[in-house]
C-alpha cells in the first residue's frame, strides 16, 4: 500500500504513498476538536459588531444566570493578567507596536474583536448565553482605505497614528535608470484581501493540574507558540506543554499566537477545569488573520530592446488593526523578490505599513512573494505589449542565464542555482504555445466573442526560512534553524523526532524516505513523531516552505551522527579499526572481508551494552540542529490559456501548464500534490476570492457562500512537470515547494485575462477577475 | 428532550436529544464518531457528509431528530472485513488528500455520486463534488481517485454478480 521504491533501491525519489493516509481516510484522525476531557467546559466569545468604538460598559451578570453557565468575563475582568499579543518582527526601530489585548478592554478596532466570553457545560448553552451580555459602544469612524488613513487629520486607529512603519531598500542608481530610459511603464495594482480558509477551523483545548498547563491547538507552530504563550501569560516555559495534534491545513493562517489561545490558558488557570473553544467558520472568517491587502505603485524603466533598467516599488501594506506575530514583515519578505528572475541596474523599494480598522493581516501562502511576483510578471507582460514583443522573448532578454549561477541579484540575494531556459522550453512544448497563439490570432481576426488569452509567469521565490543570521539582519524575532532527533530502538526500528510541525504536507512519509536511505532501514520500520513540545522539545515549526530544506537536512545530519556512533561500536564488535568499517545498505562491514553487522544488530548490542568500547555511551540516539547558509530558490514557468466571453465577462481556464524546478525531489507524488494545491490557491486569488468590508467596516464575506473558495467544478485539470536543477545550498539538492504554485499562478492567470482583452485596449483587470469586473473593463475601454 | 433511535455504522443508539441538536454534533460529541469533521456553518464545505438511509447528507444541516429511525453510515463504518473500501484505497493510491480534513466528506460524496453514475466523466465528477471543498489538493488527484474508485467498484460488482 505504500508504493514502489525508486529504481536502484533508493527511497529518496520514490513515489511512496503516504503513511499519514491510513488514519485520515478511515476517520481516526486526532483533530483538536475531537478532544473530550472529564469536566471539560466550553467557551464562547462575544465579538464586536463595531469596526471602531470605545467600549463604555460590559455587563456579563445576566449571562451568569443562564443555565449551564459556569463563568463569564469581560476584557476588564482579565485586563490584569492577559498581557498583549506578541509581534515578533519589528521591521525597524521606529515601528509603532500598539498594545494588543487578547480581549478588548476599552476600545475595539475591528469587527470580530472579542469583548467578553462565557464558559459553559455545554457548547450550545455557551452560545445561547452570549445574547445576555450587555455592551455599550461609543462609535468612532471606521478607517478602511489606506491612502485616506495616511492623511494628517483623519481618524486614527491608534493614538500614535495610522502609519506603522516605513521600510526602504535601494540598490543601484535608480534616478539614472529612469532618466535615460526610452520606455517607462507605470502601473498600480491592488492585492486584494484574502481569507486563508484552512478546512479545519481553529480549535483550542487548555487544561491544568494546578501547576502545569497543557494546550492543544490547531496550530502550525507548537514550539514558537509555547515560548510566546509563556511570555504573554507568565506561565513558566517549563510548565507549559503545547500539542499540535493532527492539523487540518494552515497556509500561514495557523502561524499565529491567537487571542483565543491566550484566553483559554487564562480561563483554565482561573477555573481549574479543562476548557475548549472551536470557532465556527463565520467566526473564523472574521478573526483568523487575513492575507495580502496591499496597494502596489510600480514603475519600470527599460531600453528600446526591452532590457529592464530599473524598478521602483512604492507599497502600501494594510496591517489591519494590530500587528500580529509577523504582520509587518510579510511585505518585507516580498521586497527581495520584485526583481524576480531578471537582471537590472537599479531597484528602489519603499513599504509603508498602515493601520486600518480591519482584521489584522499576516502570513498567507507565499507571504509577500506572491504580491512581488505578481507585480513583476504583470509588468513584464506590459513591457512586452508596449514593445510589441512576445512575452516569452522579453523575459529571455532579461532573465539570468543558467551559466550565470550563482548570481547575486539587485536585491542582494544570491540565487544558488536555476535553469529558466530549460523550464520555459519544457513548458512551451507541453502547452503547445505556438498553436495556441495561432488560435488566438484567428479568434481576434474573426472577432470571436470568446477571445483566447495566454498568460506567462516565469517565477522564482525565496523560501526555506531561513539562515538565522539573515533573519537577524531583518530584525526577525527568532532564528531559522530546525532540529531533529533520531532514536534507534532495541528492536532495530527507528523513531524520528522532527521540530517541523506538519499539517498536511506529508512529513511522516518524506522523513521516513530520507532516513531509510541514510540508515539502510526499511521504510516501514520508521515512524515520525512531531507536534508535541514534551516529545519534540525543539523546533521552529512549519511555514515558508522550510520543512524539507531545513528540517529534512537536520534529520539527515542526525542520521550521520547515529551512523558514526554505530560505526565505532561495530568496529569494536568486529575487532577492526573504525577507519576500516564501511557502511552500505544498512550494514557495517570490515573492508576487504565478509565480516559485518547490520545496524539493527548494532542497535540491539548497544541496548544490551554488554560489550561496548571503553568510554562509549550505551546509545545511538542523536540530535542535530541545522541552520542553512542561504534561502532556497525554486523556480518555474507557468502558462495559462483562458477563454474570455467578451459579452458576459465569464472566464474559463482552457489549459494550465506548470513546469516547476524544485531541485531534487524526495517524493514526486507529494511534490505534485503541493503544486496542484498551490495552483488552486493562486488561481483563486486571480479569479474568485476577496474579503470585502462595507463602508462601516463590516466584513461581508463571513461565510463560504460569500467568500468563494473554488470547488472542483471551478478549476481545470493541471498539466504539471518538472525540470531538476539541484540546489547547491544543501546536500540533498532540494528546494522548497509549498508556496511555489500559489506564487506563480496568480500572474499567469491575470496575464492571460488581460492578454485576451488586448484588442479591446484593456491593460488591467483588478483581482479577482470576476465576470463583472472583466465585463466592466471591456466597457470602460470600448465605450 | 426527544428520544430517538438511530443506527450509526451498524450500532443502534437510543438518545435523548434537544430538538435543535445537529446530527453532526450527535455523532461527534455524544457518540464519539469524530471521524466526521465540521468545516463550516452554512453547509457549503461538505466535510461533514455522511450517508443517511443510503443517501449523502451534510450532517451539519440535518437535525438529530430527523435521523430518528434512520441508518447512518460514516467514514468510520466504510471499511469492512476485507479492508478499506475501494474509494478509501483510491484516495490513498492517487494521493487525493493532504491535510485530510475534507477527506471523510469527500469520500462519502464520491461514493454517493457513483450510485447515480457508476462510470462518471471527469466533468461529471467535478460537478458531482461541487458541494465538497478541499483547500489542499487542487482537486486533480481527487478526480483521479474517484475515477479509480469507480473502476474498482464496478469491477468488484461484476465479480459479485457473476
From TrEMBL, chain A:
Keyword vocabulary terms for this entry: Molybdenum, Oxidoreductase
Native source species: Sphaerisporangium corydalis
Name of the featured protein: Xanthine dehydrogenase family protein molybdopterin-binding subunit
Region (Disordered): 1-21
Domain Aldehyde oxidase/xanthine dehydrogenase a/b hammerhead: 26-141
InterPro entries: Ald_Oxase/Xan_DH_a/b, Ald_Oxase/Xan_DH_a/b_sf, Ald_Oxase/xanthine_DH-like, AldOxase/xan_DH_MoCoBD1, AldOxase/xan_DH_MoCoBD2, AldOxase/xan_DH_Mopterin-bd_sf
Xref: Pfam families: Ald_Xan_dh_C, MoCoBD_1, MoCoBD_2
From TrEMBL, chain B:
Boundaries of every 2Fe-2S ferredoxin-type domain copy: 2-78
InterPro entries: 2Fe-2S-bd, 2Fe-2S-bd_dom_sf, 2Fe-2S_ferredoxin-like_sf, 2Fe-2S_ferredoxin-type, Beta-grasp_dom_sf, Diverse_Oxidoreductases
Keyword ATP-binding recorded: no
Keywords: 2Fe-2S, Iron, Iron-sulfur, Metal-binding, Oxidoreductase
Pfam families registered for this protein in UniProt: Fer2 (PF00111), Fer2_2 (PF01799)
PANTHER family: OXIDOREDUCTASE WITH IRON-SULFUR SUBUNIT
Protein name according to UniProt: (2Fe-2S)-binding protein
Native organism: Sphaerisporangium corydalis
Amino acid at each position: 500500500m505504500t508504493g514502489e521504491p525508486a529504481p536502484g533501491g533508493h527511497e529518496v525519489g520514490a513515489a511512496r504513498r503516504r503513511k499519514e493516509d491510513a488514519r485520515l481516510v478511515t476517520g481516526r484522525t486526532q483533530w483538536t476538536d475531537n478532544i473530550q476531557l472529564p469536566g471539560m467546559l466550553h467557551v464562547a466569545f462575544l465579538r464586536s459588531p463595531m469596526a471602531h468604538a470605545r467600549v463604555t460598559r460590559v455587563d456579563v451578570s445576566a449571562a451568569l444566570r443562564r443555565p449551564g453557565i459556569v463563568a463569564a468575563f469581560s476584557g476588564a475582568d482579565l485586563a490584569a493578567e492577559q498581557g498583549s499579543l506578541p509581534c515578533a518582527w519589528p521591521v525597524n526601530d521606529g515601528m509603532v507596536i500598539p498594545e494588543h489585548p487578547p480581549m478588548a478592554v476599552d476600545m475595539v478596532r475591528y469587527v470580530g474583536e472579542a469583548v467578553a466570553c462565557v464558559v459553559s457545560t455545554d457548547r450550545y448553552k455557551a452560545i445561547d448565553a452570549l445574547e445576555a451580555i450587555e455592551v455599550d459602544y461609543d462609535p468612532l469612524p471606521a478607517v478602511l482605505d489606506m491612502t485616506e488613513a495616511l492623511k494628517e487629520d483623519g481618524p486614527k486607529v491608534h493614538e500614535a497614528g495610522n502609519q506603522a512603519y516605513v521600510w526602504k531598500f535601494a540598490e543601484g542608481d535608480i534616478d539614472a535608470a529612469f532618466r535615460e530610459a526610452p520606455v517607462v511603464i507605470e502601473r498600480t495594482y491592488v492585492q486584494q484581501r484574502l481569507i486563508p480558509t484552512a478546512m479545519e477551523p481553529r480549535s483550542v483545548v487548555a487544561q491544568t493540574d494546578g501547576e502545569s498547563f497543557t494546550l492543544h491547538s490547531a496550530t502550525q507552530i507548537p514550539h514558537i507558540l509555547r515560548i510566546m504563550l509563556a511570555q504573554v501569560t507568565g506561565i513558566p516555559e517549563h510548565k507549559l506543554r503545547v500539542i499540535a495534534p493532527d492539523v487540518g491545513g494552515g497556509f500561514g493562517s495557523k502561524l499565529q499566537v491567537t487571542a483565543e489561545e491566550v484566553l483559554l490558558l487564562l480561563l483554565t488557570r482561573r477555573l481549574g477545569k479543562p476548557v475548549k473553544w472551536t470557532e465556527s467558520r463565520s467566526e473564523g472568517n472574521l478573526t483568523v488573520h487575513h492575507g495580502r491587502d496591499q496597494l502596489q505603485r510600480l514603475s519600470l524603466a527599460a531600453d528600446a530592446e526591452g532590457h529592464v533598467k530599473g524598478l521602483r516599488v512604492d507599497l502600501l501594506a494594510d496591517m489591519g488593526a494590530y500587528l500580529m506575530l509577523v504582520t509587518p514583515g510579510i511585505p518585507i519578505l516580498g521586497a527581495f523578490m520584485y526583481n524576480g528572475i531578471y537582471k537590472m541596474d537599479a531597484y528602489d523599494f519603499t513599504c509603508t505599513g498602515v493601520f486600518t480598522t480591519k482584521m489584522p493581516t499576516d502570513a498567507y501562502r507565499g507571504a509577500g512573494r506572491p504580491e512581488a511576483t505578481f507585480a513583476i510578471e504583470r509588468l513584464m507582460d506590459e513591457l512586452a505589449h508596449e514593445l510589441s514583443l512576445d512575452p516569452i522573448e522579453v523575459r529571455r532578454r532579461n532573465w539570468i542565464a543558467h551559466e550565470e549561477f550563482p548570481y547575486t541579484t539587485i536585491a542582494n540575494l544570491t540565487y544558488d542555482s536555476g535553469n529558466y531556459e530549460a523550464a520555459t522550453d519544457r513548458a512551451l512544448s507541453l502547452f503547445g504555445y505556438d498553436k495556441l497563439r495561432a488560435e488566438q490570432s484567428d479568434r481576434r481576426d474573426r472577432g470571436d466573442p470568446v477571445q483566447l488569452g495566454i498568460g506567462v509567469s516565469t517565477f522564482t521565490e525565496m523560501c526555506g526560512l531561513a539562515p538565522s543570521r539573515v533573519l537577524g539582519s531583518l530584525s526577525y524575532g527568532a532564528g531559522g534553524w530546525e532540529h531533529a532527533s533520531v532514536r534507534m530502538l532495541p528492536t532495530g526500528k527507528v523513531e524520528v523526532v522532527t521540530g517541523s510541525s506538519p499539517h498536511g504536507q506529508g512529513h511522516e512519509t518524506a522523513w521516513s524516505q530520507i532516513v531509510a536511505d541514510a540508515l539502510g532501514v526499511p521504510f516501514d520500520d520508521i515512524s515520525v513523531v512531531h507536534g508535541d513540545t514534551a516529545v519534540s522539545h525543539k523546533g521552529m515549526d512549519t511555514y515558508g516552505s522550510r520543512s524539507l530544506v531545513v528540517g529534512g537536512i537536520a534529520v539527515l545530519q542526525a542520521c550521520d551522527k547515529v551512523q558514526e556512533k554505530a560505526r565505532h561500536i561495530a568496529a569494536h564488535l568486529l575487532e577492526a579499526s573504525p577507519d576500516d568499517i564501511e557502511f552500505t545498505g544498512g550494514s557495517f562491514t570490515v573492508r576487504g572481508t565478509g565480516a559485518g553487522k547490520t545496524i539493527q544488530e548494532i542497535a540491539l548490542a548497544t541496548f544490551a551494552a554488554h560489550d561496548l568500547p571503553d568510554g562509549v555511551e550505551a546509545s545511538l540516539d542523536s540530535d542535530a540542529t541545522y541552520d542553512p547558509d542561504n534561502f532556497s530558490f525554486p523556480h518555474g514557468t507557468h502558462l495559462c490559456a483562458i477563454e474570455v466571453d467578451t459579452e458576459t465577462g465569464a472566464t474559463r481556464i482552457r489549459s494550465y501548464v506548470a513546469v516547476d524546478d524544485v531541485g531534487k525531489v524526495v517524493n514526486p507524488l507529494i511534490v505534485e500534490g503541493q503544486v496542484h494545491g498551490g495552483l488552486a490557491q493562486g488561481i483563486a486569488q486571480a479569479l474568485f476570492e476577496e474579503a470585502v468590508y462595507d463602508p462601516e467596516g463590516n466584513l461581508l464575506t463571513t461565510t463560504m457562500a460569500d467568500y468563494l473558495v473554488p470547488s472542483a467544478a471551478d478549476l481545470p485539470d493541471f498539466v504539471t512537470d518538472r525540470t531538476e536543477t539541484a540546489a547547491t545550498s544543501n546536500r540533498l539538492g532540494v528546494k522548497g515547494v509549498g508556496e511555489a504554485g500559489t506564487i506563480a499562478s496568480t500572474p499567469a492567470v491575470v496575464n492571460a485575462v488581460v492578454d485576451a482583452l488586448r484588442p479591446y485596449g484593456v491593460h488591467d483587470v483588478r483581482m479577482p477577475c470576476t465576470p463583472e469586473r472583466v465585463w466592466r473593463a471591456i466597457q470602460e475601454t470600448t465605450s | 428532550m426527544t428520544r430517538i433511535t438511530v443506527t450509526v455504522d451498524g450500532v443502534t443508539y437510543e438518545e435523548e436529544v434537544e430538538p435543535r441538536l445537529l446530527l453532526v454534533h450527535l455523532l461527534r460529541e455524544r457518540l464519539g464518531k469524530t471521524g466526521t469533521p465540521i468545516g463550516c456553518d452554512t453547509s457549503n464545505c461538505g466535510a461533514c457528509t455522511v450517508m443517511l438511509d443510503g443517501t449523502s447528507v451534510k450532517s451539519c444541516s440535518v437535525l438529530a431528530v430527523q435521523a430518528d429511525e434512520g441508518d447512518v453510515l460514516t467514514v468510520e463504518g466504510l471499511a469492512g472485513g476485507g479492508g478499506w473500501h475501494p474509494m478509501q484505497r483510491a484516495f490513498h493510491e492517487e494521493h487525493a488528500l493532504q491535510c485530510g480534513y475534507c477527506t471523510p466528506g469527500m469520500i462519502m460524496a464520491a461514493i454517493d455520486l457513483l450510485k447515480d453514475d457508476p462510470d462518471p466523466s471527469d466533468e461529471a465528477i467535478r460537478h458531482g463534488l461541487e458541494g465538497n471543498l478541499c483547500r489542499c489538493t487542487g482537486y486533480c488527484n481527487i478526480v483521479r481517485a474517484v475515477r479509480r474508485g469507480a473502476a474498482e467498484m464496478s469491477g468488484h460488482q461484476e465479480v459479485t454478480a457473476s
